[in-house]
Each structure stands twice: as C-alpha cells, then as structure tokens.
Amino acid sequence: MRCLSIYVLAVLSTLVAESAFTPVQARLIAGGAGHTCALTDVGGVMCWGANHSGQLGDGTATGRLTPVFAFRLKRGAGAVVAGWLHTCALVGGGVKCWGANNKGQLGDGTKTDRNIPTFVKGLKSGVIAIAAGHFHTCAVTDRRKAMCWGENRRRQLGDGTAGDQVTPVPVKDFPRKVIAMAAGSLHTCALLSTGRVKCWGDNDFGQLGNGATDTFPQLPVDVIKLGKGTTAIAARHSGRGSWFNVSVAAASWRGVPR
C-alpha cells in the first residue's frame, strides 16, 4: 500500500536519520504527493522522498530514501504540514515554507521555488495553526483570524477573488473566532470557537457541506447540520481528481453531512 497524500496524523514512532542512524522520536507526520515529513519530540522537522522542488527543505533537490532535517530546523517547530509539492512549519509563532512556489503557496511574495525554509511574508509571529492544500496554504493567527495564500482559481483562499496571492490575505468577512483550519485540493474549511464550520472553494463533490454542488461561492458558507460540539476538522486532497472529501469530528459527507 503506497503512502499517498494523507493529511497530518498524530503519531508516536521512531525515525532513522540519514546522516546518523540514531533513533529520533516523532510526534506528528504530514504527507505530500511524493514526500513525507515528521515533527520530532524536540520540534525538529525531518523529511524524505521526492525533492525536485526542494520540498524536503534540506538545501538540495536530491530525493532522500531516509529522513533528513530541513535546513536549520533541528528543533523549535510546533507543527508541520505538507501540500502537493511544498511544506510548511510553525516555528516560534511564525510560518516557514519551502518547496514549489508556482502559485505563490510559499507566501514569500514571489513565485520562486525554495529549497530551504523561508518565512511567509508578514507571518513571522502571532500564528497558532497552519494548513496546506495542493497549491495553497492557510494560517490561524493568535487573534483567531484566518489568512490564506497561493492558488485561488476555485476561490479556495476565500478573499472574494479568483486570483492567486503570493502573500497572505485575510478570508473576507470572516469572524475572528477561528481555532483550526483544514485544506483540500481546491477548498478550505475553518472550525470556529462556537463549534460551527465554514468552508469555501471548489464544491464539485459537495465538499463544502452546504447542500449544493458545482458552485464556487465568493465567500465562506456554513456547513449545515453542524453546530456546537464539533471539535476537529480535516480535509483530504486527491491526485487522481476523483474524490475530494471533508471530515469533521467523526462525520464525513459528500454533499450533506449525515
């Protein structure tokens, strides 16, 4: 069974570093199209797999068969997420990203690929959570504000436009009550402190959960049948384009949650 682009999973496992065969404890993992990353127990970020866009963050474009540390990230990170060909980490309250940047998904103000972690413009501090889709990335600030950047052709950034953004933009007309975010291929969802969930972007398969399909709302919509009691959200992206599902707590849906 191949390890495909699954989203962040909590784990307690052992990694083996490429440079020294010393066991390293991992507490979080994230998977992209052809690469995987782990957060160690001391906040180090280790990645392995494909690296043609610099998505391992080790300063090279060489694929790795065993984990290597991302440049200068041997400790201190609080989270790691992986998009299709890019990776981001929460470091000291700020966001650093690396890898492919063809849609501005690294958020550094350019569309230049990076093979070492680079700070997202304007987000060097004050961030509490991050999420990565195919070619877009989002963050939750300590003021409970949702920010997104990168590809936006299906309005997955939620800024009311359909244009790509190379730096973070706020999700438009959104309450400052966000506690978590999740990103699929071309859509995004946010969990509010009230327990409500809002989603935006592509809706071909009903992944926005608003009871409709084939619509691309300009602004976030409420997921129906979800209110108080929702504690976590997750979104999956598929490389084959056949399924784009969202899961909330223990519920999942295509069209309307059941």
Gap from first CA to last CA: 29 Å
CATH class: Mainly Beta
* CATH topological fold name: Methylamine Dehydrogenase, Chain H
Biggest sheet: strand arrangement: 1-2-3-4-5
Provide the succession of SSEs: EEEEEEEEEEEEEEEEEEEE
Overall average pLDDT: 86
In terms of quaternary structure, what is this?
A: single chain
Strand content: 35-45%
Key attributes of the depicted protein:
about 0% helix; about 260 residues; disordered C terminus; Methylamine Dehydrogenase, Chain H; five-stranded antiparallel beta sheet; mainly beta; disordered N terminus
Question: What does this protein look like?
Answer:
The protein is mostly beta strands. The chain has a single domain (9-253), classed as 7 Propeller (Methylamine Dehydrogenase, Chain H). It contains no helices and 20 strands. The strands form 5 sheets. Strands 1-2-3-4-5 form a 5-stranded antiparallel beta sheet, with no helix packed on it. Strands 6-7-8-9 form a 4-stranded antiparallel beta sheet, with no helix packed on it. Strands 10-11-12-13 form a 4-stranded antiparallel beta sheet, with no helix packed on it. A hairpin with a 3-residue loop joins strand 14 (178-183) and strand 15 (187-192). Residues 1-13 and 240-258 have low confidence and may be disordered.
What's the quick description here?
The protein has 258 residues and is an all-beta fold. The protein has strands at residues 9-16, 23-31, 35-40, 45-49, 64-69, 77-82, 86-91, 94-99, 114-119, 127-132, 136-141, 146-150, 165-170, 178-183, 187-192, 197-201, 221-222, 233-235, 246-248, 251-253.
